[in-house]
Amino acid sequence: MKYPKLILTALVAVIALVFSRDILQGSIAFSAESTKNPRSAETSNLSTYLTPELVKMIFPEAERFGDIEGSPPSAPVFRGDTLLGYVFETYDLVQGVGFSKRPFHILVGMDLSGFVTGVRLMHHVEPIAILGRTDEDFHQYLTQ
């Protein structure tokens, strides 16, 4: 049985509220969890997901990306020698979890102006299949 797009919208809205809550807490206290266990390039999953093909999806103008550095970790993205922006994983930033109490692994591209250039869900264990939706439905929603 297929559910209307409204159900997917509601699911993503709930996910956004979880992230918003964590971002708000983070802006006040940088999140208690991340203060206890700050994410670094060594503990991040970013290197697991980061490939030239993925960077091209998130940053269409990109030709290459640099080393993952910092806390929270990010990778610089370049066209030639020109820095375009950075790619990071949301879990390294807010350590937000979903309904299943397990993390979402979402990669985000952000240019030097703070504009989000692309988003890609890499991994989750949420039970969205019970709503008749697929990961591709979620990917399509994120590209809006």
From TrEMBL:
This is FMN-binding domain-containing protein. It comes from marine metagenome.
